[in-house]
Amino acid sequence: MANVTMTVNGKSVSKPAEGRTLLVDFLREGAGLTGTHVGCDTSQCGACVVHVNGKAVKSCTMLAAQADGAEVTTIEGLASGGELHPMQAAFREHHGLQCGFCTPGMIMAAVDMVNRLGAPLDEATIRAELEGNICRCTGYHNIVKAIAAASETMAGMKTAAE
Amino acid sequence: MTGSAEGIGARVTRREDKRFITGKGRYTDDMAVAGMCHAAFVRSPHAHAKVSSLDADAARAMPGVIAVLTGEELAADGVGNLICGWMIHSKDGTPMKMGAWRALEHETVRHVGQAVAVVVAETRAQARDAADAVVVDYEALDAVVDSLDALKPDAPQIHPEAEGNLIYDWEIGDEAATEAAFASAAHVTKMEIRNNRLVPNPMEPRAALAHYEEADEHYTLWTTSQNPHVARLVLSAFYNIAPEHKLRVIAPDVGGGFGSKIYIYPEEMVCLWASKKTGVPVKWTSDRTEAFLTDAHGRDHHSEAEVALDADNKIVGLRVKTVANLGAYMSLFSSSVPTYLYATLLSGQYDIPAIHCNVKTVYTNTTPVDAYRGAGRPEATYLLERLMETTAREIGMDPAEFRRKNFIRSFPHQTPVIMCYDAGDYDASLDAALKAIDYDGFAARKAEAARRGKLRGIGLSCYIEACGIAPSQAVGSLGAGVGLWESAEVRVNPVGTIEVLTGSHSHGQGHETTFAQLVAERLGVGLDTVSIVHGDTDKVQFGMGTYGSRSGAVGMSAISKALDKVEAKAKKLAAHLMEASEGDITLEGGTFKVAGTDKELPFFQVALAAYTAHNMPEGMEPGLKEGAFYDPTNFTFPAGTYVCEVEVDPETGKTEVVDFVAADDFGTIINPMIVEGQVHGGLTQGIGQALLENAAYDADGQLLSASYMDYTMPRADDVPSYRLMTTVTECPGNPLGMKGCGEAGAIGSPPAVINAITDAIGTNALEMPATPANVWRALKSAQPAQAAE
Fewer Cβ close by (within 10 Å): the C or N end of chain B? Predict the structure, then answer.
């Protein structure tokens, strides 16, 4: 088995992986980061979304070997210095999660959504963009509210930084 | 009650959220122990077949394989068959016909996906590879998938124990009185109603990690369970895995259940057995296709329903015949779902003097069916509310007014089908919903939609459900094999912090927040000084778990009772310490006070005094820890009105839910934010049933919708933002006045959606799911008739 090396949440991780090992299994079993979940086997549910080189990717749909040399961010790496990312904070504030299983993928997909589309995001856009993430608990109502609110916060932070 | 800003009624954010939003949740598949190996199951590709031979030699020789174990070995080791824990008797007095269900089948498989062997290997991939290499020869038998077909004389026989595939032929109500009501009726409306089969689909697939430690002859099972103590009891008492004190069951963070994680399935049992057999810890995690094939499904009824009215449009009788599909085997509580959780709710919110219902349950070559969010009550509500709407249309009466005319208005109300409703105000929720939707303005909205080429419709559903699933004595008399109370222990630590050990289990419901809110309310302490402990049989006293919207009404009532005892003892001690009369002690904002004086002692000082025990009243034991078991006096009866507005595109048949109003009466609400979240989720599952979801089998018993590519889960753009409101009548049956909110959305919403669509398209011939194709066909089939009018 060849070694696969990538930077995960700012740290270099190097582990042997079979050619067929999926990125999600490399992260969960190789890197011990179990925050990224597997909810289906057809790339539909989005529980496994992580960022690879800054873009949202379903980590069940990418081989670990394909991510060799990449910068990967998982849900564990989203908060910085003990401070929640605005998307994480908004999911809590707006009760955008119940069982929590789809939540890591939802949050990672939502951050990518705001990064790509900017803010503010309207309800129709958010709902359409969530096509690749399934939640069985919340009925999406509060997830949509959380993402809309976080998009405003993230836009404010970006403006402040500029 | 001392009151607290974080107490009952406060919209506090959830204390469990931080671990979930940072990826630190601990679900079963996240667990690992040293030396852990992985299980993969060999499953039947046939819906009905004899197992002729099984050759595992090649598989056993593959890399990393520890063992391949079969059903013959399982049986030889005395592992028991899976059971159904609720006895139902047919109307002729004979007991239900339970076919043998083995965790690994070595003779006759009865549904696609049934396990015949298990591979244990060092890695998950090795286990799966080896499972593929196990060669099983099957002799295929004819299969039957539809429940009506299964009752036909020439249908394949599925279990030798159940002749003609009939499990029981049960009835409830007064048949003669109902006959008489129909004989004298001024109007009768009759319908055939199908309730589609669903797959629960919690986002976390089922999983198990079993660890047998030989030195102690002790098992630990981490598993995705809504009720770990019930799992331990069944595994111990019926499946002979181990005595209860040698078996620890831990249900850590669980990613949704919706009923499907109540049951003890073959895979969890087999992992325990395999761990002892192989001497290694064994983990199994279901993939999504396995979940579709083996998680208990929900619903699947065929019914004939008819209602009789007098000349004044008052209901005089209701007659229902239902055939319910229980699948290939009787799952743990499957027998109770289409009987006591279904037919007992057929009176709805209405004063109906005579009801008779006959239910036949049948075996088919499909995945077993059991409780799924609502469990029987959605089927009753769908049937009754479709019938009410259709009847109103037939007699030319406004559907809201027809319902109102027949509402129950005095309580307690004894229905003809066992239930005695304790409290409610059905006018209040109907009024609130109609006002919110602007019912009177609908005609204008319909006309405006028509100008855009859309067919707009409005539909109502006035639902009632029974929650709590209790009292034990009552359910026992109806056939339940268990009591349905709940337990709690409140441990006050010497420093005044508090642990609450509860038999309820949280898998998304937010108990770590709401249960702590109750403690804050009662003792006036801060939420951050309270922790909620659940889901581990080694930590928590025996409890019954979470299902049937029971954790508030039953689980929190147990905590409340334990808090009563803590408060009583602490007051007695405080009186002693302050040299006052016990009757003068009050507890306000976390401080014990002596009425009419300035003497006071904070709660934590009294707690400390209980543990130092230097100065106790005579005869009082040291410590401050109290437990309680709470057994309710009745079910609780949440009720409400849902109004749905849809727009249908006549060109494509696509339905858009454009507005949805829910007015619910849940009694006392602990945390409105969490309750709203429960309703949002329930509504979406109900709208999913109405518009999208269907477990479809072909004639050979292959599940056609066995992945998210084929089974349409509701996504964010399939549902609207909801408009929710509550009306409150307190439940008189429990100390907190709570009724429960977990299932209402899924129970009440499907008929509101279908009533709205059938209103929009002008034909009633529409079944769930109302996919664009089904709606389009209904529209087309109705057009010639309309043209001829």
Answer: C
Domain edge (last residue) among B594, B612, B630: B630
For residue B61, the tally of other CB atoms under 10 A from its CB is 10
pLDDT score of B789: 46
**Between chains, do B21 and A107 touch, taking CB under 8 Å as contact?**
yes
Residue B742 sits in a domain whose CATH number is: 3.30.365.10
Task: Using DSSP bridges, classify how beta strands B115-121 and B166-173 pair: parallel, antiparallel or unpaired.
Answer: unpaired
Q: Where are the beta strands (DSSP E) in B465-563?
A: 486-492, 498-502, 530-533
B723/B737 same-domain check:
yes
Cα–Cα distance measured from residue A136 to residue A100, given in angstroms and rounded to the nearest whole number:
10
**Are A137 and B508 in contact (CB < 8 Å)?**
yes
Give the domain range for residue A22.
2-77
Q: What is the pLDDT of residue B469?
A: 79
Instruction: Closest CB to B719: pick one of A91, A95, A140.
Output: A140
State how far residue A42 is from chain B, nearest Cα, in angstroms: 7
Q: Which of B616, B574, B615 is nearest to B597 (CA)?
A: B574
CB B206 within 8 A of CB B224: yes
Examine the domain organization and report whether B562 and B621 are in the same domain.
yes
Q: How many domains does chain B have?
A: 3
B17: which chain A residues are within 8 Å (Cβ-Cβ)? Answer: 91-92, 97, 100
Q: Report helix, strand or coil for B197.
A: strand
Of B687, B663, B648, residue with least CA distance to B430: B663
Cα Rg, chain B, nearest whole Å = 28
To the nearest whole Å, the CA of A82 is away from the closest chain B CA by: 10
End of a domain among A77, A100, A121? A77
Residue ranges in chain B modelled with pLDDT below 50: 1-2, 787-789
Q: What is the pLDDT of residue A158?
A: 81
Task: Tell me whether residues A137 and B682 touch, CB distance under 8 A.
Answer: no
Indicate the length of chain B as a whole number: 789
Chain A residue numbers with beta carbons less than 8 Å from the beta carbon of B256 are 98-99, 101, 136-137
Q: Which residues of A touch B258 (CB under 8 A)?
A: 136
pLDDT at B788: 47
Query: Could you tell me which chain A residue has the CA closest to the CA of B506?
Result: A99
**Segments forming the whole domain that contains residue B575:** 17-24+485-630
Contact list in B for residue A76 (CB cut-off 8 A) is 22-24
- Same domain, yes or no, for B590 and B658? no
Task: Count how many domains chain A has.
Answer: 2
CA distance A49 to chain B (A): 12
Q: Report if residue B212 sits inside a domain.
A: yes
Work out the mean pLDDT of chain A and round it to a whole number.
96
Chain A residues near residue B24 by CB distance under 8 angstroms: 35, 76
- For B474-530, how does the pLDDT look when each residue is reduced to its tens digit (9 = 90+)? 889 899 888 889 999 999 999 999 999 999 999 999 999 999 999 999 999 999 999
B705-731 pLDDT, tens digit per residue, is 999 999 999 999 999 999 999 999 999
In chain A, which residue's Cα lies nearest the Cα of B254?
A: A99
**pLDDT at position A156, please?**
86
- The answer to whether B535 touches B250, Cβ cutoff 8 Å, is yes
Which residues of A are less than 8 Å from B512 in CB distance?
none
B157 domain residue, yes or no = no
pTM exceeds cut of 0.95: yes
Beta-carbon count within 10 A of B635 CB: 29
Mutate to test the interface with A, among B12, B14, B17, B21 (most CBs of A within 10 A): B21
Structure tokens at B738: 């709570």
Whole-number pLDDT of residue A162: 78
CB B402, CB B388: distance < 8 Å = yes
Nearest C-alpha of chain B: how many angstroms from A95? 7
Residue B752 and residue B697 share a domain: yes
Shortest CA gap B759–chain A (Å): 25
Residues of B within 8 A of A30 (CB-CB) are none
- The domain that holds B59 is classified in CATH as 3.90.1170.50
